[in-house]
Structures are given as C-alpha cells and as structure tokens.
Amino acid sequence: MTMRFKLPPGGDVPASVAARRLGLSLEQFGEVLPELLGRGFPAPDPTTGNYCSEAMDVWRLQGRFPHLFSGILTAGAGARDAKSVVRERIRGWVT
C-alpha cells in the first residue's frame, strides 16, 4: 500500500514537495535533478530554493503533450504599441 499525502495546489514549494509532484523520493529527485534541469525543468528560486509548482506542471505537460501548447507560448509575443492599436480601432469606427 502506498502512502497518501496532500500536495498544495500551486505556488512555490520545497524540493520535497517538488519531488512528490514528480512521483519521486527526495533522494531520487536530488539524483536526477541535473538531468531534469538539462531538459528544461524550472530551476529553483535563487533566494528561497523553492520550485514553482505551476511551472513544473507546464514543463511536464509540454513534454508529453506538445500539440496542446503549440501557438500558446510563442517566443516574441509581446505587448503591442498602444498608439497603433488606437489608430486601428479608430479606422474601424470611421470606415
């Protein structure tokens, strides 16, 4: 029988909880962490040493289901120039 435990729904978590989210013991997590980081696993916060559980979930899901993330997280996506947005909207109202 396996031990049951509750995981927090989100936020920054210590290494022991990060390990549990991946189904590993803390010792196993420490052993495979360099390989995980090499595969893009989110690094711990430099101040607290905690891991972002949401980032871990996205990393895990992107690796297994990349088709679900195509077009969602794209490099180069950013804020638009407000002046051009206003001009486009005004043109749409006038014409």
| Largest sheet, spatial ordering of strands | 1-2
Structural class: mainly alpha
Helix-residue proportion? 40-55%
Content of β-strand: under 5%
Q: Provide the gyration radius in Å.
A: 20 Å
Taking the sheet with the most strands, its summary is:
2 strands, antiparallel
Globally, the shape reads: elongated
Uncertain segments: none
* Run of helices and strands: EHHEHH
Folded structure, characterized:
- With 95 residues, the protein is mainly alpha-helical.
- The protein has a domain at 8-66.
- It contains four helices and two strands, in the order E-H-H-E-H-H.
- The protein has a two-stranded antiparallel sheet.
- The radius of gyration is 20 Å and the shape is elongated.
- The relative contact order is 0.12.
- The model has no long low-confidence stretch (mean pLDDT 83).
